[in-house]
C-alpha cells in the first residue's frame, strides 16, 4: 500500500471516528488524537502489527524507532501479580515483586463505601506504577448471577447499581496513577463452566437493565481507559470480536475511545478480529507470532485481503492510551510506590468495614478482652493464607495476617490462644498453582470434580480424627472460635462449585462443637455464600469475613474484641441453598454449549421479592453493635436528592449504610423494588445526622417483549418511561428492613 494512500485512508478513518461521536469533542482531546495520528504515520506495518498482539504473556511490542514503549499489563484485582517469565507461566522468583494484598471485590462491595472503593483502586494503581505496569486487568464487574460461579469473589454484587457505583470509584482511583484500569469481562461472563465457548441466551432488555449498566458507568463515569472482552458467546458472536458488543454498543452508543483487549485466548479468527473493534489480542500460549492478529493478519494485509486501515485504527487507540498515561509525550508520568505503610493502613480500613455481622444472639459479641483467658481457634481457615490462590487473582503478598495471628497479637500475653485444624482440605494441587493457565484453553473451565472412592475414604478417616480431637479440646477452653468456610480450591477461576455445601465435612464438625460449646463464635471466610441449615439455628453468632487482604486477621480480631464496630452489609443474597436462586430455579446454570438466562430480570433480591423467597440472609443485611433509628424521609423530585435523619440509639459509635429502594406502584411493574441509592454515615452514641442521598429517580422501560439484538436499542439504560408512573422510595437498613417511605 503506497504512502499517499495510507495517509488518505487514515484521514478518512479519523474523520469517520469523529463523526460517530467516539471522540470527546474538546480541544485537548483533539490535540491528543492529532498527536496520535502524527505518530501513527511514522510506523511501519511490522511495528503496528507488533502493537496489537502479545509479544510476551503480559506485554505487547513497542516501536523503538518511533520511541514507542511496549504496553505492560498485569493481573489484579487483589494486588499486582508476581512477575512471570516472558514466555511461560512460571514465576521468575524475584525478591522485589511482593505487594500489598487487597481485599477481594466482594469485600469492597460489603463496605458499601465509595470512598474506600476509590482508595483501594488508588492503592492498586500506585502499586502497578511502582512495579512498572501500564494496564491493570481489573476490576471485574460481572453480576453474581449464581452463588456457584468460581470467580464471584472477584466481582462486586448481584445488583447493577451497587456494582456500577463502586466500580466507577475504584477505576478513578486506579487511573489517578497514570495506569489504565481494564474493566472486565464484557459481557455476561457469569460462569467458569465452558466459559470459552458457551453461548449465552438472554433477552436484550434484560441485558440492558442488569448486565450492561456497570460497564456503561465504568466507561462514562469511571472513565475506564481499557475494556476486556469476555470468553463466552452472545447472539452468535464471540464477545472478544463481537460487532454487537464492541462496535454498536461500546464504540458507537457509548462513545468509548479507549483500548479494547481480548481475554487471554479469547480471539478465534483473524478476519473477524481485524474488522472488529478489538485492539489488542492476548493469549496464554507463547507462539506469539502465530496469534490471529500477528503474522496471519500481516499476510492477509500484504495479500490485499484485509486493508491496512483496520490496523491503523487499532494502533490509533493504543497511541491515544499511551498519551493519556504519559507513556509517550512530554508530560511527566507518576512513579507510584508499593508496600508502603499508607497502603497497608488503607487496606486495614477496608478490611474493617467489610466484616459483616450476620447473627449475634444475646449480645455474645463483642468478646470481653479482659475476660478472655483460654481461647481455642478451630478450623483450617484460622491459620490459612489465601493470597496465593484463586487463579489470575493470586498475588505474592508481602505478608498476610491470619485470624490466628490477629487474635494472638491483639490479646497479647494475658490470654492463652491455641489452634487445632478440626478439618483438612483435599489432597492435590495447592492454592497458587499457576500452571493451570497453560492448559486453560484446552479444558475451557468446568465444575469441581469429586475425589475417587479410595481417596475419599482415606480423607474421611483423617477428618474424623481431626474432628474428634477438636471436639475433645473444645471442652477445655473458656472461649471457642470457629473459623471455616471456603478457600481458593472453591473460589477460583476455571471452575464453578457444584453446590453451596460447606466442604471438608465442616457441617458435622460445627454441629458437634456446638453441642460442647453452645456459645461458640462462628466465623466464615469466603467469596461466596454457603449452606448453613444444619447448624445456623443453634448458633448464637455468625461473622462473614471474605478474603480480606493482608490485614484481614487484624480487622477480624478488632471486630471480635469490640475495637471496631462491624458495619459491613451483604452485597448479595445469601440463599439457604443454591436451588433457591433464580439462575437454578428458573434459568440454567451452568448449561452445556448454551446457557439460558430464563430468569430474566429476576436476579438476586428482585427474584426473592417477586416469588416470596425467604433467604438465609437478605441483600443489604448486616448487624452492628449499636442500633439506629430513622425518621422524616423527603425526596426532591427535581434534584433527585433524598434526605432523612438517622440517629445512633446505642452505646457505641458505629457506621450505618442507609439504603434507598425504588418501587414502581403500577400493577404491572415486573420488579417490586430496585436499589436506587445508598450512603454510609458515622454516628457517635446518641448522635443524629441528616443524611442526603442522590438517587436514581426513574426506573426502566418494560416493554411487553424486548426487541431483537440491535445496536440502536442497546446502550445506556434509558431513564424515560412509556407511561406516567408513580414511585415510592423506601429507606432502610437492608432490602428486607424498610424503615421509611416517601413518594414522587
From TrEMBL:
- Gene Ontology biological process terms, A to Z: carbohydrate metabolic process
Entries under Pfam families matching the protein: Fn3-like, Glyco_hydro_3, Glyco_hydro_3_C
**Xref: InterPro entries:** Cellulose_deg_GH3, Fn3-like, GH, Glyco_hydro_3_AS, Glyco_hydro_3_C, Glyco_hydro_3_C_sf, Glyco_hydro_3_N, Glyco_hydro_3_N_sf
Keywords attached to this Swiss-Prot or TrEMBL record, sorted alphabetically, are: Carbohydrate metabolism, Glycosidase, Hydrolase
Question: Which SUPFAM superfamilies has this protein been placed in?
Answer: (Trans)glycosidases, Beta-D-glucan exohydrolase, C-terminal domain
Keyword Hydrolase found: yes
Domain Fibronectin type III-like, by residue range, is 656-723
- Could you confirm whether the keyword Transport appears in this record? no
GO molecular function ontology, one term from the record: hydrolase activity, hydrolyzing O-glycosyl compounds
Matches recorded under PANTHER family: BETA-GLUCOSIDASE (PTHR42715:SF10)
Q: Which family does the record assign?
A: Belongs to the glycosyl hydrolase 3 family.
What protein name does the entry list? Answer: Glycosyl hydrolase family 3 N-terminal domain protein
Please spell out the taxonomic lineage of the organism that makes this protein.
Bacteria, Bacillati, Bacillota, Clostridia, Lachnospirales
Amino acid at each position: 500500500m503506497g504512502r499517499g494512500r495510507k495517509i488518505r485512508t487514515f484521514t478518512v478513518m479519523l474523520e469517520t471516528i469523529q463523526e460517530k461521536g467516539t471522540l470527546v469533542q474538546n480541544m485537548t482531546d483533539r490535540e491528543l488524537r492529532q498527536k496520535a495520528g502524527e505518530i501513527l504515520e511514522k510506523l511501519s506495518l511490522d511495528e503496528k502489527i507488533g502493537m496489537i498482539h502479545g509479544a510476551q504473556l503480559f506485554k505487547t511490542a513497542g516501536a523503538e524507532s518511533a520511541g514507542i514503549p511496549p504496553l505492560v499489563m498485569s493481573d489484579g484485582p487483589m494486588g499486582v501479580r508476581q512477575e512471570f517469565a516472558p514466555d511461560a507461566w512460571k514465576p521468575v522468583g524475584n525478591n522485589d515483586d511482593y505487594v500489598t494484598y487487597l481485599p477481594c471485590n466482594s469485600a469492597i462491595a460489603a463496605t458499601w463505601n465509595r470512598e474506600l472503593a476509590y482508595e483501594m483502586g488508588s492503592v492498586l494503581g500506585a502499586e502497578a506504577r511502582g512495579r512498572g505496569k501500564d494496564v491493570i486487568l481489573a476490576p471485574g464487574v460481572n453480576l453474581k448471577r449464581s452463588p456457584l460461579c468460581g470467580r464471584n469473589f472477584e466481582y462486586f454484587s448481584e445488583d447493577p447499581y451497587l456494582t456500577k457505583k463502586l466500580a466507577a470509584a475504584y477505576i478513578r482511583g486506579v487511573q489517578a496513577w497514570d495506569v489504565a484500569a481494564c474493566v472486565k469481562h464484557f459481557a455476561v461472563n457469569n460462569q467458569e463452566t465452558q466459559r470459552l465457548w458457551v453461548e449465552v441466551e438472554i433477552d436484550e432488555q434484560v441485558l440492558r437493565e442488569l448486565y450492561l449498566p456497570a460497564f456503561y458507568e465504568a466507561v462514562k463515569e469511571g472513565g475506564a481507559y481499557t475494556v476486556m472482552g469476555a470468553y463466552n458467546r452472545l447472539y452468535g458472536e464471540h464477545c472478544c470480536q463481537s460487532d454487537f458488543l464492541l462496535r454498536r454498543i461500546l464504540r458507537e452508543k457509548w462513545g468509548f475511545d479507549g483500548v479494547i483487549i481480548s481475554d487471554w485466548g479469547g480471539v478465534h479468527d483473524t478476519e473477524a478480529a481485524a474488522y472488529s473493534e478489538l485492539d489488542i489480542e492476548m493469549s496464554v500460549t507463547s507462539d506469539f507470532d502465530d496469534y490471529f492478529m500477528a503474522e496471519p493478519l500481516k499476510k492477509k494485509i500484504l495479500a490485499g485481503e484485509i486493508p491496512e486501515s483496520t490496523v491503523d485504527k487499532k494502533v490509533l487507540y493504543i497511541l491515544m492510551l499511551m498519551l493519556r498515561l504519559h507513556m509517550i509525550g512530554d508530560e511527566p508520568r507518576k512513579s507510584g510506590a508499593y508496600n508502603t505503610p499508607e497502603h497497608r493502613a488503607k487496606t486495614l480500613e477496608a478490611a474493617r468495614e467489610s466484616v459483616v455481622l450476620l447473627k449475634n444472639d444475646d449480645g455474645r459479641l463483642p468478646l470481653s478482652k479482659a475476660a478472655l483467658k483460654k481461647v481455642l481457634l478451630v478450623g483450617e481457615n484460622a491459620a490459612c493464607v489465601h493470597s496465593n490462590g484463586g487463579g489470575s487473582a493470586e498475588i505474592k503478598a508481602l505478608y498476610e495476617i491470619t485470624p490466628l495471628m490477629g487474635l494472638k497479637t491483639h490479646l497479647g500475653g494475658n490470654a492463652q490462644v491455641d489452634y487445632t485444624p478440626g478439618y483438612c482440605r483435599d489432597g492435590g494441587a495447592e492454592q497458587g498453582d499457576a500452571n493451570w493457565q497453560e492448559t486453560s484453553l484446552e479444558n475451557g473451565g468446568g465444575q469441581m470434580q469429586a475425589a475417587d472412592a479410595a481417596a475419599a475414604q482415606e480423607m474421611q478417616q483423617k477428618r474424623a480424627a481431626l474432628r474428634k480431637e477438636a471436639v475433645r479440646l473444645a471442652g477445655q477452653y473458656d472461649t471457642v472460635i470457629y473459623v471455616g468456610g471456603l478457600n481458593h480450591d472453591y473460589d477460583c477461576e476455571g471452575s464453578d462449585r457444584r453446590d453451596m455445601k460447606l466442604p471438608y465435612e465442616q457441617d458435622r464438625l460445627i454441629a458437634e462443637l456446638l453441642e460442647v460449646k453452645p456459645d461458640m463464635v462462628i466465623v466464615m471466610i469466603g467469596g461466596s455464600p454457603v449452606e448453613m441449615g444444619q447448624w445456623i439455628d443453634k448458633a448464637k453468632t455468625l461473622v462473614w469475613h471474605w478474603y480480606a487482604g493482608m490485614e484481614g486477621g487484624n480487622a477480624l480480631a478488632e471486630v471480635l474484641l469490640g475495637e471496631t464496630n462491624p458495619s459491613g452489609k451483604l452485597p448479595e443474597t445469601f440463599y439457604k441453598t443454591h436451588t433457591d436462586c433464580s439462575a437454578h430455579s428458573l434459568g440454567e446454570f451452568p448449561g452445556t454449549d448454551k446457557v439460558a438466562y430464563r430468569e430474566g430480570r429476576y436476579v438476586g433480591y428482585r427474584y426473592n421479592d417477586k416469588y416470596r423467597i425467604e433467604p438465609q440472609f437478605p441483600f443489604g443485611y448486616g448487624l452492628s453493635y449499636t442500633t439506629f433509628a430513622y425518621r422524616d424521609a423527603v425526596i426532591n423530585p427535581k434534584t433527585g436528592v433524598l434526605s432523612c435523619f438517622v440517629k445512633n440509639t446505642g452505646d457505641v459509635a458505629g457506621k450505618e449504610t442507609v439504603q434507598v429502594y425504588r418501587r414502581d406502584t403500577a400493577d404491572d411493574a415486573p420488579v417490586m423494588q430496585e436499589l436506587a441509592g445508598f450512603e454510609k454515615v458515622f454516628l457517635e452514641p446518641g448522635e443524629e445526622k441528616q443524611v442526603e442521598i442522590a438517587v436514581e429517580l426513574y426506573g426502566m422501560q418494560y416493554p411487553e417483549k424486548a426487541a431483537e439484538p440491535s445496536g440502536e436499542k442497546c446502550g445506556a439504560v434509558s431513564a424515560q418511561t412509556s407511561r406516567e408512573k408513580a414511585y415510592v422510595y423506601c429507606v432502610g437498613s437492608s432490602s428486607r428492613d424498610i424503615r421509611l417511605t416517601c413518594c414522587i
